[in-house]
Design brief:
The structure is a homodimer of 207-residue chains. Chain A has 207 residues and is an alpha+beta fold. Chain A is built from five helices and ten strands. The structure holds a DNA duplex (30 and 30 nucleotides).
DNA sequence: GCCATTCGTCTAGAATACTAAACGCCTTCA
DNA sequence: TGAAGGCGTTTAGTATTCTAGACGAATGGC
């Protein structure tokens, strides 16, 4: 009955080449996940076992998918990193997209008086949209207030920013910051005589 | 050794009034979570057991935290809803308000060689945590790699940043940026001779 | 070469999870 | 009133996980 998840293990230890529980888990199986994560942290089975308070044999068996660990023991093992079970199961090991971006690679979205340069080429599948923004003197996102789902925040790097949020207007200078619910109508304007540069982030991505 | 997580169960079934494994799990324990979720779905232990392909006794024992289910059987149980283990372990919510922050209001979190200045006083209930960070020459988040839930990104404003993510090392200069899954082990270091300033954002907040 | 370490794996036996089948309590219906 | 069925709980026994220790292979002195 136990069936498809567990494997016979006191007998032939993997007759055929199969490793993964067939229909089962998400992307990589538990064992492979654990092994890769452990290696990323540069730990041996024994080191991890000591931190976690289990034996190295347990780590070995889990990594080979010879056993399906209990929640309790898996938690103990992951505490050795530390990492929660939920994170462990959702961590994306493989298609480690891109991490580093040179300044010239930031994709220009707007252009003209307002420059929005996006971190990363594509926001799909991402939780944050970060941009390097530059407003020329007088530049303005428009009288028509913006509003969309999510939350956004930013820090002024240089120049002066006039920010309107939900009817409230404020002038921010270098080092000042903001954080608001994007559903509140908002507007960005550069009332100064030099460029205004800010770094902003919003979630979820709106482009 | 097995120790703190499991409870004696063939004997006195909870001498004192305690229910939760003391130091252990996150918010609600596994058993309570399962029970509440099951009731939200309007299922009896037997119904869920039948859908899941386990016995009602198993559901009962899990809900009482008398056993710590194996990953395999917990998965089978949750398939009865259906719901993933990761989702199961992460259920929750909250509120908030305040928009503008002067530079001096950004709350200093670290101090010393590394300065983290947080946008907003409190990140609870927020989706993004944005910080103005400054690393003095040689400053380092440490050999022991960081790793926590979520995604993070940033842009270098000035100076040079040496960033290590999942074993890959890279030097970033003003205008360069990064974006990665925070659960990958990572490290920030200023290898230059002047302060390195960056603006970062991560979600969800980790402080 | 040889010893000392460290690595991942494997095995016997102890500890734990899980099943099948009861139990007691309750409600419903005849 | 009693039979029938649903509920969550408990128990005895089986299946699985987990520990302690040993194994062979690889590595680094010396």
């Amino acid at each position: 009955m136990a069936g498809d998840f567990r494997r016979a293990h006191r007998s032939a230890p993997a007759a055929e080449g199969k490793e993964k529980p067939e229909g089962g888990e998400a992307s990589p199986d538990i064992g492979t996940r654990l092994r890769e994560l452990r290696k990323m942290h540069g730990l041996s089975q024994r080191e991890l076992a000591k931190r976690a308070g289990v034996t190295n044999g347990t780590i070995s068996l889990i990594e080979q998918n010879r056993i399906s660990p209990s929640i309790g023991s898996l938690k103990k093992v992951l505490d050795g990193f530390p990492m929660s079970i939920a994170d462990f199961l959702t961590l994306d090991l493989k298609p480690r997209s891109r991490v580093f971006y040179e300044a010239k690679e930031l994709r220009e979205i707007a252009g003209g008086d307002v420059s929005f340069r996006l971190v990363g080429r594509d926001t799909r599948g991402r939780a944050i949209q970060m941009m390097h923004e530059r407003y020329t003197p007088g530049a303005d996102t428009g009288e028509e207030m913006l509003s969309h789902a999510g939350e956004e925040c930013g820090i002024v790097i240089s120049g002066v920013l006039e920010l309107t949020v939900g009817g409230e207007v404020r002038r921010l200078v270098a080092g000042d910051a903001y954080y608001f619910d994007s559903r509140l109508p908002h507007r960005f304007r550069n009332p100064g005589t030099i460029d205004c540069v800010i770094v902003s982030a919003c979630t979820p991505p709106s482009f």
